Give the backbone structure.
Amino acid sequence: MRGLALVLFLALAFVPPAFAGGARLDRIEQAPKGWHGAVFQPRFDYPVSPAADVYTWQAVSFRKEPERYLRTLLAYALSGQDREHWRLAANPLRRWYHVPWLGPGANGREFIHGLTRARDLAPGELGAAQTACRQNWALAFYNDVGAAALGQMWGHGGRDPDLSALPFPAGTVAVKLVFTEATVADDPRLAGAPELEANIHVDPLPDDAACVRSAGADGKPTARSPRLLRLIQVDVATREDRASYKTGWVFGSFIYDGRLNGGDPWAKLKPMGLMWGNDPQLTDAAAAGGAKPRQSIVFEAGAGFGRGGRMNGVVDERASACSSCHMAAQWPTVAPMIAPAEWAQGRCWFRNLDARYPFGFAPGQRRGCADLAALRQTQSLDFSLQLAVALRNWSLERARGAKPVRTAVGVLARGHGEMLKVDGLDIVPLRR
């Protein structure tokens, strides 16, 4: 039995994948000796420019026909994909690519399908039947429009990343598939969900309410072991010229619901909603008084999992929302992606910030939302939390020694463990 030799396999060995040009763009968990199953195949051979294509969702109004818009975008994202192993290079219709440098760290890419650990589901989040914490792991990728920008940023033969490649051009599409260890016993909607094997953290008490940590108190990664996961959520995002309120992005989310009729599980992805702005006027008090979001559309009553009823996925942080979390993507990463509980501070995450400008410092670090120093000390990553994680991992790699390292993205200094300073600023760890 394949799993016998792999139980409690420690995620300590990493190998650099090959890509066009030969430069190393990640350190990914290595398959153990004797493994005969699937092995993750990263796609880093970024194109110079995107291929000619028709972006059908751009002919649909996301405000007037939001469900049609989302389903059109999802069809584009799923067309031609290898839905068994998600080998992006196997798609004969269009080209999709991974973000580099998501391999290192306790939550980094696992070796089977390249999933990274996402936010856990605490007991009860899926319903009363879910009494134990459940891990979630995600796989994300960009279309060739976004990948051309990734190539400009990372495709320099191992030299420093070029952040001037941002923002992403209109037509960029990002897709994230979230798989869960939750079962039908936790939520009947998971019946018949597409499955994917992943090397996830071993929970010695899988049926208790506590979530297994990805690393111990000593900093050592928690042991991992292969396990079948089930599809629970699909997120799509696109750079839209028509998206007003400055953000420039439209975010949408689907939940898998196996109770729907039909034999095709991929047709059982139910749209949760979409958002194109953060509704700055929707304070916590206003939401408690019955006010609704104006820049989010939620299709199902009671399914606005974001703060104040804003659109969010079932797996995502309830204290924020899709757009507000992604807005915190910047370099250096000096503010967390999750908004504080108090609205006086949390409102910084619900501005409609021009995607060209960085989020800035969290309240208490500097002057808060309107801190002009942020424009000099940080740079926007155009709502890409993956890039924020990638830059942190790349910077940790460069700053392995005791002395500061000067790079094109700042002076890097590594502290104890996974602590990192960029230009003297402490970097906030993110999970994406």
